[in-house]
Amino acid sequence: MTERRRVSRPLLAGILAAAAAMGVAYAYGPGARAEQVEQAAAAARTQLSARAGDARAVARPATPRSPAAGSGATMAEPASTASCTTSARYAKRQLRGIWIATVHNLDWPSRAGLTPAQQRAEYVKLLDLAAKRRFNAVFLQVRPASDALYSSSLEPWSQYLTGTAGKNPGWDPLPFLIQEAHKRGMEFHAWFNPYRAGDTTDLSKLPANHPARLHPNWVVKHEGKLYYNPGLPQVRDWVTKVVKDVTRRYDVDGIHFDDYFYPYPGQGTQFADSAAFKTYGKGMKLADWRRDNVNKLIAQVSKAVHTEKPYVKFGVSPFGIWRNKSEVSSGSNTKGMSAYSSIYADAKAWIKARSVDYLIPQIYWPRGYAIADYNVLVPWWANAVKGTGVDLYIGQALYQVGTKTIPAWAKPDELPSHLAVNQKYPEVKGDVFFNASQLRTNPLSVMDRLVKEYYTRPALLPLIKGMSTKAPAAPSGLKHNGRTLAWAAQSGARSYGIYRVDSAGTCATADGRNLIAVVPATHAPSYAGKVAGTYYVTTLDRLGNESLPTRLAIR
After folding, report:
1. Which pLDDT band holds residue 211 (cuts at 50, 70, 90)?
2. 3-state SS class at 385
3. 540 closest CA partner among 431, 429, 430, 462
4. How confident is the model at residue 482 (pLDDT cuts 50, 70, 90)?
């Protein structure tokens, strides 16, 4: 334990000093937010009763087909769009995501014990808000603490559905949650916390079938909570099994881990994993061994997900600071907590190993903030992923808008300005906002500003390098009846892109400014196009691969 002491004491002193200055913004991501902030929210309820996208979108080549039938519709010929003038401000491909936390009923369901009908109604209303804001991805927490918001033979039902851990809510929410996202043209990423096992150290309070009760040697009691021991191969195998089970049985688009690995520094208590370290450390330093344990889990889960379904994406939302420059020359010019040293999360190792498809660093601080400057961290992360094939989206602190933790958050233009910063870096392909409750409250009218200034058009999802690039068939039978465009449904379609220009041209579908709608394939293949112009319709598969366009002029 001397290595742990050597690393932790000076680090903890720096962390505590930073925490005092940074307030609640210091270390809380999706997982931590749900644990720390929600407690205040629960008390209040009791008292009351991230250049986004691909700016050089290139149409994917496809074999030319015969002209489409109906009212002069034609198949646009393949053409290079590399020289097309496009706008970073109106990126054609851009991930726009929202984290929906379930732990402690932070976002959904709003409280435990709602009927299935009430739970469905709340979720639909939340997704309708996201769709209205032109979001295209949801990251919903399906496993807050070794529990399940879905039907599982491996782990007990979550208490956040019924109020009682292990109690069957009378329905399996996950198929509905996924289907409703898809109905609105959104990807669904199932969000897991890998190591949190319980909010109590009393195993007897957990359901009888809880893995921690069945395998008490897997867990570490730490500062009032239970954690699975990342140093045990059995734990890594279990987490992988749980993730693989969801990947296999449900139509998810992505598997997502939050920023919780080893516990965040709290009261300075030693994490009691010395026995596992003695057994599996093999001469490594404790800190290196812990990082290696996390790296192994990430690699193992990534392999399992892609083996089960090659089209399912896997990504992590790490804490916003990898390492500070004071620790290592390749670190960022920041002074906050280091994920590398504090929670043993080495995001650069995951990038190098290509064991993640995307990263969403939680850059939860404003521009100009000395301890952790947004203007410093975005280019650092952009450089970290440059040329690697790992997509970069920025985790945005929507929950901070209008608060007094840092003066900048009281300014309504702070969060929108982050998207302007992103546009300077082509590696940044979108943003994910924490948390979904602020979609409802719209603090400082920030969501209105985001839509007005940055989300004026819909956006296609970014393409993940290394995944299938086979383009689907172009729409056929395109016609116009005076009010509505309609076409034949295409096999394998997730949605259809609708573009409009005043006159035909080879760059029509390269420019996001021309994208006027994304029609989910769950809807009738049609669009109410009344304005004269040239329309292009494309087929999009679940990965965002786009067909050649079918063109139709309306006069």
Report:
1. very high
2. helix
3. 462
4. confident
Kindly give the interhelix angle for 414-422 and 446-453, rounded to the nearest 10 degrees.
30
Helix axes 116-132, 173-183, angle to 10 degrees: 20
Q: What's the gap between Cα 401 and its chain centre?
A: 20
Determine the 3-state secondary structure of 527 from DSSP: strand
CA 364 – CA 336 distance, rounded (Å): 12
Q: What is the pLDDT of residue 499?
A: 97
Q: What is the DSSP string of 86-134?
A: --STT-SB-EEEEEE--GGGSSSSSSTT--HHHHHHHHHHHHHHHHHTT
Report CA 439 to chain centroid distance, whole Å. Answer: 16
Strand pairing category for 391-396 and 428-433? parallel
Task: Check if the beta carbon of residue 298 is closer than 8 Å to that of residue 352.
Answer: no
Distances (CA, A) of 118 to 110, 170, 173, 438, 471: 10, 13, 12, 20, 40
Which residues, at least 6 apart from 210, have a Cβ–Cβ distance to it below 8 Å?
A: 146, 147, 155, 156, 165, 166, 198, 203
The whole-number pLDDT of residue 83 equals 78
Q: Of 327, 302, 162, 329, whose CA–CA distance to 243 is shortest?
A: 302
Strands 428-433 and 515-520: unpaired
Q: Which span out of 6-20, 339-353, 522-536 was modeled with the highest average pLDDT?
A: 339-353
Q: At what angle do helices 374-385 and 414-422 cross, to 10 degrees?
A: 30
CA distances, 323 to each of 288, 345, 446, 501 (Å): 14, 10, 31, 47
CB atoms under 10 Å from CB of 513, counted, come to 15
Element (H, E) at 538: strand 533-540
Q: What is the pLDDT of residues 85-140, one digit of tens each?
A: 888 888 999 999 999 999 999 999 999 999 999 999 999 999 999 999 999 999 99
Cis peptide bond N-terminal to 333, omega within 30: no
Question: How far is it, in rounded angstroms, from Cα 496 to Cα 539?
Answer: 5
DSSP one-letter string for 345-374? --HHHHHHHT--SEE--B--S-TT-SSS-H
Sheet holding 476-480, edge to edge: 476-480, 485-488, 526-527
Q: How many whole angstroms separate alpha carbon 156 and alpha carbon 152?
A: 7
What 3-state class would DSSP assign to 394?
Answer: strand
Q: b/e for 110-132, b at 16 or more Cβ within 10 A?
A: eebebeeeebbebbeebbebbbe
Q: Which positions ≥6 away from 59 have C-beta within 8 Å?
A: 78, 79, 81, 509, 510, 546, 548, 549
Mean pLDDT of the chain: 88
- Predicted local confidence at residue 25, as pLDDT: 34
Phi and psi torsions of 444, nearest 5°: 55, 25
Report the pLDDT value the prediction gives residue 72, as an integer from 0 to 100.
64
Does the structure show a pLDDT above 80 at 410?
Answer: yes
Residues 6+ apart with CB under 8 A from 239: 192, 194, 195, 228, 297, 301
Cβ–Cβ under 8 Å, residues 312 and 252 = yes
Distance CA 198, CA 79 (A): 56
Model pLDDT, residue 89: 82
22 pLDDT band (50/70/90 cuts)?
very low
